Amino acid sequence: MDITPSLVNYDCNSTDTVPVEISNITTRTVAVNPRSLVCEMQPVRIESMSNASIKTQDEIEPFLESLNIDREALQSDELRRGIELIDSYADAFAKSDIELGYTGSVKHRILLNDDTPFK
User: Which residue from 97, 100, 93 is spatially nearest to 54, judged by alpha carbons?
Assistant: First the structure.
């Protein structure tokens, strides 16, 4: 079984129920008995959401170089709009290998033409 991680507002003094999304990630049938403990809530506090926008020219140039943008193929207006778009989604880009993360929120399947294992 897989429990989908989520954030919920919950009053610990309340007797309200919290919906939980459970997925069977196996090929066999799984039975969950009534009133079974399937997950545990942990308190978290979100301190702040930082704006990761790239603001200075010193930050923009190395970042654009790492993207291998062919500036000769773009008009100046296209390049400016591209930089603005990248800047507005700067928090979606890792600026180093250390910033790369992991998420279990997205499930996908890779269909192969040949199931033979390879190295």
Answer: 93
- Express each pLDDT in 63-92 by its tens digit: 777 777 788 888 989 988 888 888 777 777
- Reported in sequence order, the residue ranges of the chain that DSSP labels E, i.e. its strands, are 2-3, 22-23
* Rounded-to-integer distance, Cα 56 and Cα 63, Å: 11
Domain boundaries, the chain: 57-95
pLDDT in tens, 57-70: 666 677 777 777 78
pTM passes above 0.85: no
Start-end of H helices in the chain: 57-66, 76-88
Report the greatest alpha carbon distance in the chain: 65
